[in-house]
Amino acid sequence: MEVVPNMLVLITYDINTGTAFGQKRLRSVAKACEDYGHRVQNSVFECELDMSLFLKVKDRLVRLIDQNEDSIRFYQLGDFRKVDHFGVKPSIDFLDSLLV
Question: Quick check: is 45 in a domain?
Fold first, then answer.
């Protein structure tokens, strides 16, 4: 049986927070992203996902937003693992052991 490798997925979003409903959507989207990845900037998450989980996450997040007010982007970076980072908030190496 062939093992399908995980891919690195970058999720970015912009939620209109001009109303209480928008603020609630922002919290919901952020919480959902925290379930699957690591926050690297305020509205940017890095996630290590297989294709099945990616489709599940994508469906969940698209259902949370208001497509007339908000936007969300999914960058599938495949097995590409090189990330250059400068400044605060150190990067997470998904190939290294993670303690939860």
Answer: yes
Residue 4 lies in a domain: no
Q: How many distinct structural domains can be found in the chain?
A: 1
Backbone angles phi and psi of 64, in degrees to 5:
-80, -30
The answer to whether position 64 is within a domain reads: yes
AA letter at 38: H
What would the 3-class secondary structure string for the chain be? Answer: CCCCCCEEEEEEEECCCCCHHHHHHHHHHHHHHHCCEEEEECCEEEEEECHHHHHHHHHHHHHHCCCCCCEEEEEECCCCCCCCCCCCCCCCCCCCCCCC
85 compared with 6, residue with greater pLDDT = 6
- The share of the chain scoring above pLDDT 90, in percent, equals 69
Domain hosting 40: range is 11-76
Q: What is the pTM of this model?
A: 0.79
